[in-house]
Amino acid sequence: MGCGVTGPRRVPRVLSIAGTDPTGGAGIHADLKSIAANGGYGMAVVTALVAQNTQGVRSVHVPPVAFLAEQLDAVSDDVDIDAVKIGMLAGVDVIRAVADWLDRVRPPVVVLDPVMVATSGDRLLDADAVEALRGLLSRADLVTPNVPELAILAGEPAAGTWDDVLEQAIRVAAQHRVRVLAKGGHLTGQHLPDALVDPTGGTVIVTEFSGTRIETSNTHGTGCSLSSAIATLVAGSGDWANAAAESKRWLTESIRHGPELHVGVGHGPISHFAGLWNRGGIVTAPTASEVEADWWAEIAGIRADIDDLPFVRGLGDGTLDRDVFLRYLAQDALYLRDYARMLAVAASLAPTPDEQAFWAGSAQGAIAEEMSLHESWLTNADGSLRTAGLDSVTTAYLNHLLAAAARSDYHLLIAALLPCFWVYQDVGERLRPLSHPEHPYRSWLDTYADPVFAASVRQAIDIVTKAATGAGDAGRAAMREAFRASAEHERRFFDAQGA
Ligand SMILES: Nc1ncnc2c1ncn2[C@@H]1O[C@H](COP(=O)(O)OP(=O)(O)O)[C@@H](O)[C@H]1O
Ligand SMILES: Cc1ncc(COP(=O)(O)O)c(N)n1
């Protein structure tokens, strides 16, 4: 028996037991794609090799049943299976082997797609195997017959209307005490409903999922794909009606995009990953540390320019004119007042309490810093405060931050806020060692030694780069540009007072 990790699973391990389709549209190929597209880990045991394409079935080869049993055991001896989807079973011997294995392993979820005839009209189940297949119904949690298959399971003529389909499904469900997904694909008309008929709670509950027929010939493998999707989703949630509803929504989108694949000239496949591809699912996102390295390299030139500024050099060696320094600090104090407000906006937009607390704490820190600047440096000898108006460089920097805040785009705003932490600390790291007891700006240089500031810079980088990994390509590019622009404003800010 399985010896895998137990406990709550986020990625359901789903086994398809089915036949093959070398053109990839039906059978285990469709199942594996469907399982992956719906968030599961797919596995497959082959019942029959089918030489088929989008136009039809050419021949079927059923390997020795003992080998089927070996494949099944190879999976269940090693893996804890969360759900099984059963498709093409070919004949009586295969059905018996699968039934024996089910009885021994008892997987928690079993979805049976009672495949009998392909979309092309070719038989995929021996005519004498129907009774054996009925015997599997009691071992399944859900059976997903199309209209002709439902009729065969019921032992009745095929239903001609949706109401007849539902009544037949209710009879099969009640007789075998199994959930039935009745499917409208083989009826005619614009309206194309499916319905979950659930007799497991005593009374039969029918949940209908409405749908509209898509004009397409890309319907090869729809039944395989739908049953695999339901098995995967129900393994994750345990909710049958919701799994069926979600699966139909996903299937509909995948059917709609099938023709874009240009596979074959007959009944083409569906596009299992269309939703994922259309929503950016094929782009590999960079890790947070890759974003960090990329953004830091992006502003390497700006950082080198800052180090070379006469203002920064003079600050380091103590030759900077005191009035120039005080003009700089006066602008810094004005900047910090509004920067604190933007940090507070980031706090209000933050998606998690941790991030909210971080930005709110930083806002408090920035305004405290502004007040202490006034106390320590910006008080004149007579006790009056040194006042200044916003200069054009400070105004431009603040406008850049205000514009990001005005868009209420958390990602963009925190990217724009980051250089004030990161570039400032970086400059300080190089200035700090130049401090000495007689240095005129000693107390200012020493503030960079504060480990609390270093920790908050680290946290800001971590929050922003992590957000960037999840932002999608366009969002990440916008964040990078907002970050670069703020770094450039930092450079101008250091340069503004001259030296
Ligand atoms: N042309 C179509 N437009 C939209 N949905 C379809 C279309 N054809 C089939 N479906 C959906 O695909 C699923 C399988 O349909 P069906 O044809 O009844 O089964 P099977 O593929 O087993 O023959 C159902 O959910 C059905 O609603
Ligand atoms: C191996 C295999 N299994 C099932 C089907 C039915 O496919 P459809 O979903 O189109 O009825 C198929 N054509 N081949």
TrEMBL record:
It catalyses: 4-amino-5-hydroxymethyl-2-methylpyrimidine + ATP = 4-amino-2-methyl-5-(phosphooxymethyl)pyrimidine + ADP + H(+); 4-amino-2-methyl-5-(phosphooxymethyl)pyrimidine + ATP = 4-amino-2-methyl-5-(diphosphooxymethyl)pyrimidine + ADP. One of its GO terms (molecular function) is phosphomethylpyrimidine kinase activity. The lineage of its organism: Bacteria, Bacillati, Actinomycetota, Actinomycetes, Micrococcales. Pfam families: Phos_pyr_kin, TENA_THI-4. This is Bifunctional hydroxymethylpyrimidine kinase/phosphomethylpyrimidine kinase. GO terms for biological process: thiamine biosynthetic process; thiamine diphosphate biosynthetic process. Catalyzes the phosphorylation of hydroxymethylpyrimidine phosphate (HMP-P) to HMP-PP, and of HMP to HMP-P. InterPro entries: Haem_Oase-like_multi-hlx, HMP/HMP-P_kinase_dom, PM/HMP-P_kinase-1, Ribokinase-like, Thiaminase-2/PQQC. Residues 310-496 form the Thiaminase-2/PQQC domain. Pathway: Cofactor biosynthesis; thiamine diphosphate biosynthesis; 4-amino-2-methyl-5-diphosphomethylpyrimidine from 5-amino-1-(5-phospho-D-ribosyl)imidazole: step 3/3. Keywords: ATP-binding, Kinase, Nucleotide-binding, Thiamine biosynthesis, Transferase. GO terms for cellular component: cytosol. Residues 21-270 form the Pyridoxamine kinase/Phosphomethylpyrimidine kinase domain.
